[in-house]
């Protein structure tokens, strides 16, 4: 499509009018992003189940592996951007999808502990190349008049890909087996690779040049030495800690208490659906509030999502919804995840604005570049904590004694009471909710302290 701009006359001067028309490379890049996200989320939603059922890791060790994987996925793009610049976007993207296809394929074909760790390493490196390349392509395919629209389309493609990946993962898991989900992701990566080879020919002139890996590390240390900024990152990490449980513990929890016919992949899709539907109206609603107030609303809501998930035990074995018997865990999971999506609408649009205000003058760009490290810290803790909580409150059925396993099988079939090992499974969500409460209280203290510091600074000036 053409990247020509419409012009309007303002006071006799021609002014470029924003347009939804972008060059072909822009649309190709977004299609590539869609396939990459479908591959990633298809496997990610099933990863914890795969690591225990297929590979043989305990809940605790699966949490450790998932923690390292999730952390590196969010950390490496800061460094691979520099490598992609030197290689060129096209060659780097080809390498990325070769690595992703090998990584996902390795997970599906060689489910052994050493090969699985190697495969996950391939996925980390390959995936870390994709994000800075695609966002860089969006940047060079747009200008000041339409860049906001360009990134809104990019964000939409990210969510469509995530939604599609988790939607397809459910039937693959049920009908083909959990070990086949990574092969579906490998297929999506191969399709993306073909698209790159045939259609991705970016013009990289004028692209924003990333810094070297050494400069990136130096800048990261500079930002992290600012206690005020680091405190904000760690406080908001409490939000993402809870949302990280969608992948760290929710799938295992649901399947162990309902059975393999449950749909944790589809439950998780409620989050992006709510965000896509409500982020614009919610942002409009809170536009006159201070960013800290909007973030506070998000942190007040996020513990309620976990409390909703915990309350499923109050409804017995089934709930009638429009005349249809539905498992209470299904209802309360969907409600809790919807609350998470609503809370994200209050948090995400205002967080970067608030983070920028914590930066010293002239360093706003540096600080915003590392503001998303809250997810790095959050998911690292979320997966480890999820493993321990599952092991304590909702253990792997394969670890049960034969007698208890027989009782468990009868319970899942609806022919017996819940075993004692699972009688208090919902209590794990109280511990998760507690993290959100601590984060909310910490934010209130943070606002009070920073306001006092700012007031004193204004007086001395």
Blueprint of the fold:
Layout lengths: L5 E5 L2 E5 L6 H21 L2 H7 L5 H17 L1 H11 L1 H21 L3 H28 L6 H30 L4 H19 L13 H12 L2 H22 L1 H9 L5 H5 L1 H16 L5 H20 L8 E3 L2 E3 L1 H30 L6 H6 L3 H21 L8 H11 L15 H33 L1
Helix pairs in contact: 1-6, 1-7, 1-8, 2-3, 3-6, 3-17, 4-5, 4-6, 5-6, 5-8, 10-14, 10-17, 10-19, 13-15, 14-15, 14-19
What does this entry look like structurally?
The protein contains 19 helices and 4 strands. The chain has helices at residues 24-44, 47-53, 59-75, 77-87, 89-109, 113-140, 147-176, 181-199, 213-224, 227-248, 250-258, 264-268, 270-285, 291-310, 328-357, 364-369, 373-393, 402-412, 428-460; strands at 6-10, 13-17, 319-321, 324-326. By secondary structure, the protein is mostly helical. A hairpin with a 2-residue loop joins strand 1 and strand 2 (13-17). The protein has 2 domains: 21-210, Up-down Bundle (Growth Hormone, Chain: A), CATH 1.20.1250; 211-461, Growth Hormone, Chain: A (Up-down Bundle), CATH 1.20.1250. A two-stranded antiparallel ribbon has the order 1-2. Strands 3-4 form a two-stranded antiparallel sheet. Helices cover 74% and strands 3% of the residues. The model is unreliable at 1-5 (pLDDT under 50).
């Amino acid at each position: 499509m053409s990247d020509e701009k419409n012009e309007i006359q303002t006071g006799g001067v021609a002014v470029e009018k924003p347009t939804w028309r972008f060059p072909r490379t822009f649309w190709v890049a977004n299609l590539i992003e869609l396939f990459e996200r479908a591959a990633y989320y298809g496997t990610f939603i099933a990863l914890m189940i795969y690591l225990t059922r297929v590979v043989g890791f305990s809940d605790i060790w699966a949490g450790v592996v998932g923690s390292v994987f999730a952390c590196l996925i969010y950390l490496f793009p800061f460094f691979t951007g520099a490598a992609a610049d030197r290689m060129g976007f096209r060659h780097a993207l080809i390498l990325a999808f070769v690595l992703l296809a090998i990584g996902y394929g390795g997970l599906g074909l060689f489910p052994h502990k050493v090969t699985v760790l190697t495969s996950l390493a391939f996925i980390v490196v390959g995936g870390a190349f994709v994000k800075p390349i695609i966002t860089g392509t969006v940047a060079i395919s747009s200008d000041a008049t339409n860049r906001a629209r360009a990134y809104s389309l990019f964000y939409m493609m990210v969510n469509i890909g995530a939604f599609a990946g988790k939607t397809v993962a459910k039937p693959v898991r049920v009908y083909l087996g959990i070990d086949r989900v990574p092969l579906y992701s490998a297929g999506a990566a191969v399709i993306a690779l073909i698209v790159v080879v045939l259609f991705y020919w970016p013009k990289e002139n004028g692209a924003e040049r990333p810094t070297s890996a050494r400069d990136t590390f130096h800048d990261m240390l500079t930002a992290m030495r600012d206690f005020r900024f680091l405190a904000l990152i760690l406080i908001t990490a409490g939000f993402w800690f809870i949302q990280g449980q969608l992948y760290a513990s929710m799938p295992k929890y649901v399947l162990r208490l309902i059975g393999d016919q449950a749909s944790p992949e589809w439950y998780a899709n409620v989050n992006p659906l709510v965000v896509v539907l409500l982020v614009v109206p919610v942002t409009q609603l809170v536009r006159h509030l201070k960013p800290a107030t909007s973030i506070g609303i998000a942190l007040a809501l996020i513990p309620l999502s976990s409390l909703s998930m915990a309350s499923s035990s109050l409804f017995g074995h089934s709930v009638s919804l429009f005349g249809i018997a539905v498992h209470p865990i299904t209802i309360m999971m969907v409600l809790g995840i919807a609350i998470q999506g609503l809370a994200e609408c209050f948090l995400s649009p205002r967080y970067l604005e608030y983070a920028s205000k914590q930066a010293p003058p002239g360093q706003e760009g540096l600080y915003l570049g590392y503001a998303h490290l809250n997810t790095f810290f959050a998911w690292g803790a979320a997966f480890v904590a999820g493993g321990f909580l599952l092991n304590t409150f909702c253990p792997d059925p394969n670890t049960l004694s034969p007698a208890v396993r027989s009782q468990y099988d009868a319970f899942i079939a609806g022919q017996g009471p819940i075993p004692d090992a699972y009688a208090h499974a919902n209590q794990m969500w109280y511990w998760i909710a507690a993290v959100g409460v601590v984060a909310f209280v910490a934010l209130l203290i943070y606002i009070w302290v920073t306001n006092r510091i700012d007031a004193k600074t204004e007086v001395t000036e």
